[in-house]
Specification:
The complex is a heterodimer. Chain A is an alpha/beta fold. Chain A contains 17 helices and 22 strands. The longest helix of chain B has about 35 residues. The chains are: A alpha/beta, B mainly alpha.
């Protein structure tokens, strides 16, 4: 009998279906990997099993007991343990205190510290780890903190342990030890749900693997019955569902060159961008794409390396220098970093150009208003009035306001970080048209995107990052989804 | 009718102020030019300090140290005048400079230690308090110079209208101009509205916070001069409690505790409400300790109202969310 079953789980967010009728079942004592691209619904799935979010419909069945509404407490009580990418440890407490956090040991007044440490030592011992349980968790390495998390889960008698990208945060040398412990847990009869992007680990450790794609269940396979290529095909295997407008641009000379750039988690980045070009930056979440963008935009200073704009070396002290040099960033999170949501469109659009349109510090209000009108018109931002607050606009129009703000600052090299995230299909098309128009007017674009179709449909050239390094560069005739995914997974 | 309501909502502080005035005018001595001017003259320094602090609060910061900051500045100023015998113009310049340094120190520490300004000023407040007592040797420093006293006590046009009040009005227009017409003012709102977006829009947030503190320091220095001159002396306790009056008044006047919102005319109304209530309670012979209770209640009610409005707006937004997505295209 399965220890954990998911029956027809669907999760809707406004405008997005994160999980669509997913059914999965997990056997006792198996290591079951779940794979899928960014946004395939893996995180949503584990959050539902952990009771952190509620499914819109469907059932979670734990050990034969069916739940429509699972809470974190219920899930824990029934033996579900989760180790998220962000650990849930209290750095200022010692190992034993962390393991038994929230548990009753000892009498009503004071916990039985002796018993706690003894028990903690026994648990750590059983994992084959030798760390003094009196040590502060904050002093431990990330890998050791992860072990504390595992010990914590076991102490709660966990039957199913969900691990979300457990190898992402720890050093390569420590992965082997973690995998050893995972195998050991399996021998003790614990079911492991292992979520990872890394093919090597998945093949090394799993009994079975399930694939999700765009929130839908694709297949479950025994690991020795599939090849890497099969997995990749299942993860990306879909027709292009969106059409991408064509454009007519002759590429010019290099407007941006990056030589041996290092810093902010990126290493030795070399790239160039030609006038009129859209350069796609591919990679998994955490591959260092956003970090690179922030360095190019002067938000973070590089440790070493050179940036040349139109052949001239530049050193940005802050973002205003980058804007001055003609570089604009449309950030990934438009609500948090892009727009001033509480203010009007008219306020937002000139906000990056205020200095330029000021005389003796006094803002030329007429010019500011003209800029707002001009760009509302140019980008066809749909709003009854320019006085509308940006927070009241739809996602697509909010994004256009951010683009307008950047364009109004007379920038020519635009970095779009996830330009269409959280925007519905119709508005996506408009953003694509807009990007085409921009390069046709002689601007150049670096586009960071996790959406494969968008990346391949829009870019002239794609560079792939993996763990802060460029693992490959593909020109249009070399474009293929599986090739990008291979490079993004660190396979050569 | 809707327009009237909308206007009232946007100018809540003025509505409250009018209600206060109507209420107090039942007392025969209240609505005389003399009494009104008295109240205004008395509160000139509070208004000037509030102009300075409004810049900090609108940019999303908070400063608790201003009371003792003004005390210490006042004590040093009085000492320079009386004991060191420095000429008045130089004393004025030095007084303002000291206020600038002390106010900017808060911003610098906040930046260096990476701790929000409110906690920094919680510490510097106590430091400034201690220093005020040390420098004044716990004594009141008197001022004999009539020229110095004129800054706080002098009247114009043979009426009760004080020089300080004239200065307050001018400074009010100045700060309003800075906030609404200059890019510096826009940057202040940008910081208060969304610090991350401001940084990515090419605004050097750290530098801006320093500049804002320098400007606020100027206002605090002038406020301190006015207060010291009006009292004719300075002591470690002279300006204590100003921070409370100013912050409550600004919140009442529509400055959001989260920053990004506020108008100078609202601030003026907010401060005047606190002033009127203080005056009223005094005239009614209310025990000073009860006045503290009343002021505390007003402050909490104001913050509560601010938060309540915020929450309501959030709810309104969330229910609206799904709808505009459909309108797209």
């Amino acid at each position: 009998m399965a220890i954990l079953e998911l029956e027809h789980i669907t999760k809707n967010y406004p405008g997005v279906v994160a999980l669509d009728d997913v059914s999965l079942s997990f056997e006792p004592g198996e290591i079951h990997s779940i794979m899928g691209e960014n946004g395939a619904g893996k995180s949503t799935l584990i959050k539902i099993v952990a009771g952190a979010i509620e499914a819109s419909s469907g059932k979670v069945i734990i050990n034969g007991e069916s739940f429509d509404k699972l809470t974190p407490a219920l899930a824990k009580q029934h033996g579900i343990g989760v180790i998220y990418q962000e650990f849930n440890v209290v750095p200022s407490m010692n190992i034993a205190e962390n393991i038994f956090l929230g548990d009753k040991t000892g009498n009503a007044i004071s916990p039985d510290f002796k018993k706690m440490h003894k028990e903690a030592a026994r648990l750590m011992e059983s994992l084959g780890v030798h760390i003094d349980s009196h040590r502060m968790v904050g002093d431990l390495s990330t890998a050791q903190q992860q072990l504390v998390e595992i010990a914590k889960a076991i102490s709660k008698n966990c039957k199913v342990l969900i691990m979300d990208e457990p190898s992402a945060a720890i050093a390569v040398a420590e992965v082997e030890n973690m995998l050893r412990i995972v195998r050991q847990l399996k021998e003790q009869g614990v079911t492991i749900i292992y979520i990872s992007h890394r093919m090597d680990e998945v093949f090394e450790i799993s009994d079975r693997v399930s694939i999700l794609r765009d929130g839908r269940y694709v297949a479950t396979k025994k690991i020795h019955e599939v090849s890497r290529q099969d997995l990749i095909n299942m993860m990306v295997g879909r027709e292009l569902t969106e059409s991408f407008p064509s454009r007519n641009v002759t590429l010019g000379e290099n407007v941006l060159e990056v030589r041996n750039l290092t810093g902010n988690g990126d290493f030795n980045i070399n790239l160039h961008l030609r006038k009129g070009e859209i350069l796609g930056l591919a990679g998994l979440v955490g591959a260092g794409r956003t970090e690179l963008a922030k360095m190019l935009f002067g938000d973070v200073r590089p440790a070493s390396g050179e940036i040349l704009v139109k052949g001239n070396p530049v050193h940005f002290r802050d973002t205003s220098d980058a804007i001055e040099a003609g570089i604009g960033l449309i950030p990934e999170d438009r609500k948090r970093e892009g727009a001033f949501l509480e203010y009007s469109i008219q306020w937002n659009i000139p906000s990056m150009s205020l200095r330029r349109i000021s005389k003796a510090t006094v803002v030329d209000q007429k010019e500011a208003d003209r800029l707002a009108d001009e760009y509302v018109e140019k980008l066809s931002i749909k709003t009854p009035t320019v006085k509308q607050l940006v927070k009241n606009l739809s996602g697509g129009n909010q994004q256009k306001v951010v683009v307008a703000k950047v364009l109004a600052a007379q920038t020519e090299i635009l970095i779009f970080d996830e330009p269409t995230r959280g925007i519905d299909v119709g508005a996506k098309q408009e953003i694509y048209h807009l990007m085409n128009n921009l390069v046709e007017q002689g601007m150049s674009i670096i586009m960071i995107s996790s959406e494969m179709e968008e990346l391949l449909g829009m870019s002239d050239r794609v560079m792939v990052l993996y763990e802060g390094r460029i693992t490959g560069e593909l020109s249009r005739d070399e474009f293929s989804q599986s090739r990008v995914l291979e490079l993004a997974s660190g396979l050569q | 009718m809707n327009k009237v309501l909308d206007f009232a909502r946007r100018n809540l502080a003025w509505v409250l102020l009018v209600i206060c005035v109507i209420f107090f005018s039942f007392s025969p001595n209240f609505l005389t030019t003399r009494n009104i001017l008295n109240i205004l003259n008395q509160n000139a320094y509070v208004l000037i300090a509030a102009f300075g602090i409004s810049l900090i609060m609108m940019s999303g910061g908070m400063d608790l140290s201003i009371g003792y900051l003004m005390s210490i500045t006042g004590v040093i100023s009085a000492k320079m005048m009386t004991e060191a015998g420095i000429p008045l113009p130089i004393v004025i310049v030095l007084t303002i400079l000291i206020a600038i340094v002390l106010c900017t120190l808060n911003a610098v520490l906040s930046h260096l230690l990476g701790i929000p300004r409110i906690f920094i000023t919680f510490g510097t407040m106590t430091i400034y308090q201690g220093l005020s007592y040390v420098i004044s040797a716990s004594k009141t420093v008197g001022i004999s110079s009539t020229a110095y006293k004129f800054i706080g006590q002098g009247t114009l046009f043979g009426t009760n209208f004080s020089f300080a009040l004239l200065m307050t009005i001018i400074l009010g227009f100045v700060v309003s101009f800075v906030l609404n017409k200059t890019y510096f003012g826009r940057y202040i709102f940008a910081l208060g509205g969304n610090k991350d977006a401001a940084r990515l829009a090419g605004i050097n947030v750290n530098k801006m916070e320093i500049y804002i503190s320098v400007l606020a320091g100027v206002f605090l220095g002038i406020a301190s001069l006015v207060l010291t001159a009006r009292a004719g002396s300075a002591a470690a306790t002279t300006a204590v409690g100003t921070e409370f009056t100013v912050i409550t008044g600004l919140l009442l006047g529509g400055v959001s505790i989260r920053g990004g919102e506020g108008k100078i005319n609202g601030c003026v109304a907010g401060i005047l409400i606190i002033a009127l209530l203080g005056n009223g309670m005094q005239m009614a012979g209310m025990n000073v300790y009860y006045q503290y209770v009343a002021k505390g209640v007003i402050m909490l009610a104001t913050i509560g109202f601010d938060t309540y409005q915020m929450a309501r707006r959030k709810i309104a937004e969330n229910t609206r969310k799904e709808e505009p997505a459909k309108k797209e295209g």
